[in-house]
Amino acid sequence: LLGQILDHWFESEPLKATLATDAVIGAMASPHTPGSGYVLLHHVMGELEGLRGAWGYVAGGMGALSQAIAHAATARGAHIFAEKAVCHVLLGRDGEAQGVALQDGTEVRSKLVLSNASPQITFLELVPQEQLPKDFVQRIRQVDTRSPVTKINVAVDRLPSFLAAPNARDGQPLPHHQCSIHLNCEGTQLLHQAFTEATHGHPSSRPMIELCIPSALDPGLAPPGCHVVSLFTQYTPSVLAGGQSWDDQDRNAYADTVFDCIEDYAPGFKASVIGRDILTPPDLERIFGLPGGNIFHGGMSLDQLYFARPAPSYSGYRSPVPGLYLCGSGAHPGGGVMGAVGRNAAQVAIKDFRHL
Question: Which domains occur in the chain, in start order?
Answer without folding.
Answer: 2-56+146-288 (no CATH), 86-144+294-354 (3.50.50.60)
